[in-house]
Amino acid sequence: MGLIGLSIDGAQAAAKRLARFGVDLIEAEKRAVDKAGRIMRNRSVKLVSGEVLNVRTGALRASINKGNVFSEAGGSYAVNVGVLKGNAEKYAPIQEFGGVIRAKNVPYLKFKTADGYWHSVKSVTIPPHRYLGIAFDEIKPQVGPILADEIRQAIARAQ
Questions:
Q1: What's phi and psi for 29, nearest 5 deg?
Q2: 3-class SS string, the chain
Q3: Model pTM?
Q4: Contacting residues for 17 by C-beta, under 8 A, at least 6 apart
Q5: pLDDT band at residue 1, thresholds of 50, 70 and 90?
Q6: For position 27, what pLDDT does the model report?
Q7: pLDDT value, residue 28
Q8: Which of 33, 47, 72, 148 has its CA 20 to 30 A from that of 8?
Q9: d(C-alpha 157, C-alpha 103), whole Å
């Protein structure tokens, strides 16, 4: 299964202080994590739509999901983004991380390439196509501003 978790740490102490003023920082943190997860999911889908991986069947693209926000040990909130279930979960990791596919029950892997020729090989090396890793790297610098915006909105609602 190809998954990347995204969480915001350290907001619990601030949440307790702001709660005295009617500011619900916990909900702001949950909304920020959810929004960052949506952005990361959408970016991952775009990356497997021709940027880092060409679309053949669309199964991998259709399988990329954002889970529900959940509470982690220590009080922070997180969300998982990736291939959470479905047929694509079998080959999602090899697309993300790369690897070698070897013939198991037959002497050779057989496949037809775009040029119309058939090939028989004992193994195929798949290079990494980091669709989740790239999306995660791109969202990391946006998490702070997303959280700050959600906190500003929570403060405005409390006034």
A1: -65, -45
A2: CCEEEEEECCCHHHHHHHHCCCCCHHHHHHHHHHHHHHHHHHHHHHHHHHHCCCCCCCHHHHHEEECCCEECCCCCEEEEEEECCCHHHHCHHHHHHCEEEECCCCCCEEEECCCCCEEEECEEEECCCCHHHHHHHHHHHHHHHHHHHHHHHHHHHHC
A3: 0.80
A4: none
A5: very low
A6: 86
A7: 87
A8: 47
A9: 60
Give the number of residues written for the chain: 159
- The two three-digit tokens of residue 75, written as one number: 């009080």
Count the alpha carbons within 13 Å of 131 in the hemisphere toward its beta carbon.
30
Tell me the two tokens of residue 71.
Answer: 């509470």
**44: exposed, middle or buried (Cβ count in 10 Å: 0-12, 13-18, 19+):** buried
Q: What's CA 92's distance to the chain center, in Å?
A: 12
44, two tokens: 């991952």
